[in-house]
Amino acid sequence: MGEELERVKLLLGEEAVVKLKNSTVLVAGVGGVGSYAAEALARTGIGHLILVDKDTVALSNLNRQIMADHNTVDVPKVTAMHERIKSFNAECEVTEVQAFLNADNIDMVKKADFVVDAIDTVTSKLDLIEACHDNGIPFVSSLGMGNRLDSSMVTYTDLWKTQMDPLAKSVRQMARKRGIRYPVPVLFSSEQPRIQNRIVDPDGETRKDRIPPASVIFVPAAAGLLAASIAVRTILENKQ
To answer: Over the chain (240 residues), what is each successive 10-residue block's mean pLDDT?
Structure first.
């Protein structure tokens, strides 16, 4: 890219822009958090994005997911995000993985210089955390961003310092059972989450399907942008 990244070059310098172009970031979960992370990474000049998500765009995503509009409903999220990225950064290579992250495909993290975990399933989240740790791949894991309004309360911290977040509690509990004792970098909202108990889909397969979290754009978008910032800064600090 030429002029498109001119302002990035002014801030970071030519050498940094080349580093970013030669870097790969994996974004696991292309939803409220992950879509904004992918958007920011592509606009900052990351050369290769691996987007991992099984789901398709739904009408209920339109209020907070950046690739979601009436034209992308029922389109795989990874495809919709890929098409959006091509519209402003055609040089960004995007690998679409329309699948849930699991033990069968977790090795794909080895291809990344940084991993953004925006998964909301505890088991898969911990599988990803362990894979990154075991392979020495820097990462950040996003915790609960639903049922909240105040984007200023999103912070970058350690999993073991989190509180008041039901998802963080579940992750901590399962992490202890797995013997995880090392620091886990996370994005966490210190805002007390609002209670959402209304049943939206009585026939849903999971509790999340039946009673989904309430969500508006402010908090997940802030987390996604912060995740991208952390990824870029880490790559520039670490990559030779």
So the answer is: 89 97 98 98 98 97 98 99 98 97 93 97 95 98 95 98 93 97 97 76 66 88 99 90
Q: What is the pLDDT of residue 195?
A: 75
Reading the block at residue 138, the tokens are 């820097």
Number of domains in the chain: 1
H helices of the chain, in order, are 6-12, 14-21, 34-43, 77-88, 122-134, 166-177, 207-210, 218-238
54: left (phi over 0), alpha (psi -120 to 50) or beta: alpha
Domain that holds residue 87: 3-238
9: domain CATH number is 3.40.50.720
Contact assessment for residue 235 and residue 15, using Cβ atoms and an 8 Å cutoff = no
Q: What tokens appear for 12 in the block? A: 């970071």
d(CA 46, CA 30): 17
Integer Rg of the chain from CA: 17
Question: What's the pTM?
Answer: 0.94
Other CB atoms within a 10 A radius of the CB of residue 10 amount to 8
Task: For residues 12 and 35, give the distance between their C-alpha atoms in angstroms, rounded to a whole number.
Answer: 23
| Helix, strand, or coil (residue 127) | helix
d(CA 221, CA 85): 17
